[in-house]
What we know:
Elements: H1 2-6, H2 9-30, E1 33-46, E2 56-62, E3 65-73, H3 74-77, E4 86-90, E5 99-105, E6 114-118, E7 123-145, E8 150-152, E9 156-158, E10 161-167, H4 168-171, E11 174-184, E12 190-194, E13 197-200, E14 211-213, E15 218-222, E16 224-237, E17 244-252, E18 255-260, H5 262-266, E19 271-277, E20 283-290, H6 291-298, E21 303-304, E22 309-325, E23 332-334, E24 340-346, E25 351-357, H7 358-361, H8 366-369, E26 372-374, E27 383-387, E28 397-399, E29 403-410
Parallel strand pairs: 1-4, 7-11, 16-19, 23-26
Antiparallel strand pairs: 1-3, 2-7, 3-6, 4-5, 5-7, 7-10, 8-16, 9-15, 10-14, 11-13, 12-15, 16-18, 17-22, 18-21, 20-22, 22-25, 24-29, 25-28, 27-29
Amino acid sequence: xxxxxxxxxxxxxxxxxxxxxxxxxxxxxxxxxxxxxxxxxxxxxxxxxxxxxxxxxxxxxxxxxxxxxxxxxxxxxxxxxxxxxxxxxxxxxxxxxxxxxxxxxxxxxxxxxxxxxxxxxxxxxxxxxxxxxxxxxxxxxxxxxxxxxxxxxxxxxxxxxxxxxxxxxxxxxxxxxxxxxxxxxxxxxxxxxxxxxxxxxxxxxxxxxxxxxxxxxxxxxxxxxxxxxxxxxxxxxxxxxxxxxxxxxxxxxxxxxxxxxxxxxxxxxxxxxxxxxxxxxxxxxxxxxxxxxxxxxxxxxxxxxxxxxxxxxxxxxxxxxxxxxxxxxxxxxxxxxxxxxxxxxxxxxxxxxxxxxxxxxxxxxxxxxxxxxxxxxxxxxxxxxxxxxxxxxxxxxxxxxxxxxxxxxxxxx
Length: 413
């Protein structure tokens, strides 16, 4: 047997070496050793209590994720992911410069299979920040709609305040805490349970892993109210200056929607009067009226839908007196007997005086005044002194009276 094994031993040894070399070459061609980079691997902190002081908390300022480069065969690298890595920052090893070395490992692989060739020199840097607690009221954000003719009222939250604790630099970024409530065409009151959402000063949703919230679930009672649309009307009140008058009132918006219990809404008229005191005022007066404040003084259980402010304009002008010439040929006669005509015998006063606000007087012409004489029940062939009548617009009055002497005659005479 020994002779058989030793026979051509050199050739056999060379063949074995060639086979090993060939296997190595094939392996390196089909499954070569390569390098690959993995990014944003989260760092796990241990022994955090080692650096805590009274009313202080460690805050990471750099190094909460790491990038690594590993080396291994392609068949192994293809199966690697972030979850295969373990990046540990042991606070018990913190240096005097407040830096903690980060140790990277792959627990499921040996160093012969995969080795970390770059990344173990990274550190986690931190500061000791003040530990603070701040209270926030909840902001309710309604999504969806109640049933037609209904609206969600002011929600009642329990608890109504949340306390947020953590590092001062993190807590100071909190702007508001929101509770999202979804409406699904409800027509009656309902109760919802919501999780607080924390938003920063830019309106972005914050990661609360570094914060402590006093509650993680909140009960929200949502009343569902009836709605009603009412028209707004401006009502000037008080005592006007002598010889002054309100010419025009404007309001925007002209209608609003209000909400409340059905019985409370029934007590409110379809036209809601907004009183404005104009005592001693003149000219164009403009006011902004907080409608809900005015409404709730009389109807505390009714609210205005939306943040509505009414823009009110009241135009108050002094009276002036203008004279308008009255040509005889423009005077009309009414109730003239059949077969008769009316003749003006004399007209001692050829003008009429009208008093009113300037803006109204500017609109008036002798044609729009439509001067006329009513000869009803007047005898024929007799001179009658009859009052000249005018069709006056609102906010205008005639000063004095004008009389005209007329006679009724048969047309055939």
